[in-house]
Every structure is written in structure tokens, then in C-alpha cells.
Design brief:
Two copies of one chain form a homodimer. By secondary structure, chain A is α/β, with parallel strands linked by helices. Chain A has helices spanning 9-17, 19-22, 31-35, 55-62, 75-84, 122-132, 146-149, 193-202, 217-222; strands at 45-49, 67-72, 90-94, 107-113, 133-144, 157-158, 164-168, 175-181, 183-190, 205-213, 235-242.
């Protein structure tokens, strides 16, 4: 089972203070880049993998999606989603994404925001998602960038000229990374970018877009702290389609 | 025009000492990974983009390729290729890859080893290559990894516990990088990995495989110096196919 850090008090408390928790999609600087990769949302049947507070699920139905199944492992998250982002067209359900079981061909769009780097068996998850998509169905997700996640000591290195760099080490050593973020001992799964892309292809997806998100000039003007993200790729945004070719089994 | 550093004496002299110059494909640790991505070479009509000493061109015809057009900007390289890797089925020609002009639908396989990071207009090159490939034709290439190339001070950072990390900075700032390798002032073109993948897709290719090359246990046993390459992705190996979908123009 995936670590359910979101239900520990310290983590949930810290998480609830983040701009993206308080302001929803408007508090997530990568949202415009994700939105640009989404198909026309009207009429879509959506599964939201790791829906959190339900900001995206709610945005989707507000903009014309036919239905959303919002899945999350955290009871606290789902309680918050039900409280602030409820809608008759949204069904919030508790689910460990490591054990995803969805009806075949039920969805036209699978969406996930910053959840898949917690998943150990990502290949299994992707095969389930492909099976749950109709032909031509789309998968759009964000995930922590492997370069952001690889190092055993992930912290900026300052040089003596006032510059800084992000350290990369153990990149080729895939597997668990434990970091302190909001609370101690958050467990993530490091995979190289190559592995991620090849898992997608082998699971029966066709890669349509790969964005290594970085701040725009406007982002920097509004949020000067984002200047760090000029130096390293922090987040990956991927758009893929259910391929007509059968996956490798 | 691309910088023709290979024809400067210091560079050519240094280059001729590299294992991959002296021993050919057997001196390139990434060769087994590239070879695994190649289609059956028998009968292929090949263009070798940046053929250097012609080691691959010669390997291809020796293993049954119908013909190879070997292209390079460097006169010294081509002279060496003609001297040590000549074959009646290989045509070596001088060519600046920035101005590639190839007959339409002439080839079934385009190959390139560690040359494309010198190209400024990579989109233009990729569109030319797609046009020169038959339907279903393949493109297999290696390129310096953007993470290897991004930093303005690309050198290992040692910590006080005997560990080391590779610095990443200015990753999102695409464009020219000048480094000293074999001679001073070698000019390369930094693009993010996302940009590279999206250029491929927009040029009418379908991505089949993305390998961030790292040493195997056997590589490490034979060449202990390769241990550094556990820590950073140094090289990217890509396999793609001419897509049936028209490119974006």
C-alpha cells in the first residue's frame, strides 16, 4: 500500500497552508501549462487520480465535463473535497492507486496532478488506466521531475559568486527516496525520465507532449521566488493518448 | 554554419586518441544500447548524420545494409573514414547538417551518434530527415543529455563525505553553451529534454524509445571510471519512427 502521509496531522496541516490548497488551480503555477494540454473538457468522462481537495474535479464539471470520478488515498483530503468541491456530477472515492481497478473503457480522460511519483508499480497503474480509457482517450498528468528527486541530498549548492546549482547524484539508481517535506519521512519513488517514458509506451500509450515546466516571465514577475526554477526542471507535464497498438504484456 | 571544431589540429589530435576513435564501436560503451534499438540492418538504406571516422557506416554494410550515405562537416574526419572504413556500398560526403538536403523518401534508417547537440536548427534538420525517410522509416540517435550540458560551470561538486554531485543550473535557458573539451571554445546547443522530444513529435516522428544511458554492472567491472555515470544522465539515446500523421508546419 502507498504511504498515506496526507492523513498524518503535521503533513495535512502543512499541506492545507499551501497556495495550491487554499487557492486551488489558481495557486498552482503550472496549471496554465497543464490546461493547454487538456482536450476540450466538455462532455469528457474523467478520472482524477489523486484528486486531493478536488479542485480539478470541480473545475472539470464546472467547464462542462459529463462526470468525474475523483480518487484519493487520504480520508482527510476526500473529506475536504466533499466539503468544498462537491457536485452531483463528481463521485469522490477512496482508493490506493497501487490497486486501481476501474471499469474497462469507462473514461475519455485520465488526469493526475503530482501524485504518480508516490506509486511503486507505475507500470501496473498505467496499464489499468489504458484499459479504463476509450479508444483515443487521453492521459494528462504532472509528476515531480526525476532530476528534482534523484539526489540523496536534494538541496541547493551555493557557489562563491552568488550562483547556485541543483545537485544530481544517484540518478541511475531507481527506487525509494525519503525526504522531509511538510513532515519527516515522505516516501517517493525515483524513476529516470527514460523509464517513465518507456513505461508509458509499453503500457499502450502514445506520447503527445513532454513539458519540463519552468516559470514564464509573467510567473517570475508575480512570484519572484520561482526564479530558482529557471535552474532545474522541477516538474514534468505529460500528455499521452491511448494507442491503437496493443501494449506489451 | 555549424562550428567545424573537428578540423582544428588540437581537437582532431585529441579526438583521434579517444577509445571510440581508436577502437570504433567497441570503444563506445553506449553502443550495445544503441544497437538494441536498431532495426534489422540487412537491406537498410542508411544515412549516417555526422559519420566521423565511419565506424558505424562500415559496421552497417558489413552487417548487410544495402547502402550508406555518410555525412560529416569535417574534412579530416572524412579523410580518415575514406582511409580506414571505405567500402563500395558507402558514399562519404561533406555536409553541414544545418543545411541538409536529401532526396525525398530515399532512406529507411537515419542514424546519428553524438552530433545533434551541435545543431542550432534541430527542428529543420528533423523535418529534412523525416522527408528523406520512407514511410515506416526509423531514426536512431545518441545526443549529449541536456542535464550534462545545461550548467554554465559543468564540473563535479565534491561534498565533505566523499560524495559528488553533478550541478544543474540554467536548465531552462536554452541556447549556446561553450565548453573546453579537447580544445577551448567548443560550441554546443542546449535544449531541454522536453523541447527535444516535442521537436521530434512536431517534425512528424513517433517516439518509440528514450534511453538515458548509464553503465551496466559489466561496464563498471571493465571500466571503473564509468562509475561517475551512475550519478548523472550523460547521454540520451532515442529511437523514433516516421509517423503516418503529417508534421506540424
Amino acid at each position: 500500500m502507498t504511504q498515506n502521509i496526507y492523513d498524518t496531522d503535521t503533513f495535512f496541516e502543512g499541506y492545507s497552508q499551501l497556495p495550491r490548497s487554499q487557492r486551488g488551480l489558481a495557486g498552482a503555477p503550472e496549471w496554465p501549462a497543464i490546461r493547454a494540454l487538456l482536450p476540450d473538457i466538455r462532455g469528457q468522462q474523467v478520472v482524477d487520480l489523486g484528486c486531493g481537495y478536488g479542485w480539478f474535479s470541480h473545475w472539470a464539471v464546472e467547464h462542462g465535463a459529463a462526470s468525474v470520478l475523483g480518487l484519493d488515498i487520504s480520508e482527510k483530503m476526500l473529506a475536504r473535497a466533499t466539503s468544498i468541491n462537491a457536485d452531483s456530477r463528481i463521485d469522490y472515492q477512496r482508493c490506493d492507486l497501487e490497486r486501481l481497478a476501474l471499469p474497462s473503457g469507462r473514461f475519455t480522460l485520465a488526469y493526475s496532478s503530482l501524485a504518480l511519483h508516490y506509486i511503486r508499480d507505475l507500470g501496473g497503474l498505467l496499464r489499468s488506466v489504458r484499459e479504463a480509457l476509450q479508444p483515443g482517450g487521453r492521459l494528462v498528468f504532472s509528476i515531480e521531475h526525476p532530476i528534482y528527486m534523484a539526489s540523496l541530498h536534494p538541496d541547493w549548492v551555493n557557489d562563491d559568486q552568488g550562483g547556485r546549482s541543483w545537485p544530481v547524484d544517484h540518478y541511475q539508481v531507481e527506487g525509494q527516496r525519503t525526504t522531509d517535506w511538510l513532515s519527516a519521512g515522505v516516501i517517493k519513488q525515483h524513476r529516470t525520465l527514460g523509464t517513465l517514458v518507456n513505461l508509458l509506451i509499453d503500457s499502450g500509450f502514445r506520447l503527445d507532449r513532454l513539458i519540463e515546466w519552468g516559470p514564464s516571465a509573467q510567473d517570475l514577475a508575480t512570484h519572484p521566488a520561482l526564479a530558482d526554477e529557471i535552474h532545474r526542471p522541477m516538474m514534468l507535464i505529460v500528455a499521452a493518448s491511448r494507442d491503437s497498438v496493443q501494449p506489451i504484456t
